[in-house]
Design a protein that fits this description.
The structure is a single chain. By secondary structure, the chain is mostly beta strands. It is about 5% helix and about 70% strand. The protein has one helix and ten strands; from the N terminus they run E-E-E-E-E-E-E-E-E-E-H. A hairpin with a 2-residue loop joins strand 9 (about 115-125) and strand 10 (about 130-140).
Length: about 150
């Protein structure tokens, strides 16, 4: 895969069981990709509302594990490992909250110019159930992405 990539991130939250008919929130953005020590790194900026500016994000993918790191107005480090619950602190301008992420299902597809990751997980906030969630990440070389992500 080339260094310059296009990234599509789709996420959905459900109060109950995962509902296939719900509309996901989708972000398509430019980013950078590199491979180091068998770990795939994807860096991108996520736009924010208001004066907060963009949040710097990094995805680390290795051995069917996904780590999402966000730094900006809000800070979080979430780790997704199938059949494991991971706890982290979610720092906001109003204080920190505890986030629990229990990964139910995870799939990873690696191709020469494309990577797809899908994760279904349960999210707790301050040790209370919040939602069942699903995230789908599609990363591809910028040249291929201009065809794949065309509206």
């Amino acid at each position: 895969m080339t260094k310059e990539v296009l990234i599509s991130l789709k996420g959905v939250q459900f109060d109950g069981p995962v509902d296939e008919n719900s509309e996901p929130l989708e972000i398509i953005t430019n980013g950078e990709y590199y491979l180091k020590n068998d770990t795939h790194y994807i860096r991108y900026k996520e736009p924010q509302d208001g004066d907060a500016g963009a949040t710097k994000c990094m995805l680390k993918i290795k051995n069917h594990e996904l780590e999402l790191i966000k730094r900006g107005a809000s800070n979080v480090n979430m780790v997704f490992i199938k059949d494991k619950k991971n706890m982290s602190s979610y720092g906001t301008p109003f204080g920190s909250i505890v986030i629990g992420v229990e990964t139910n299902r995870m799939s990873l597809l690696l191709e020469e110019d494309r990577m797809q990751v899908k994760v279904d997980y349960r999210m707790d906030v301050n040790y209370e159930f919040l939602a069942n969630c699903s995230i789908s990440i599609d990363v591809c070389s910028k040249e291929k992405g201009s065809v794949l992500f065309r509206s």
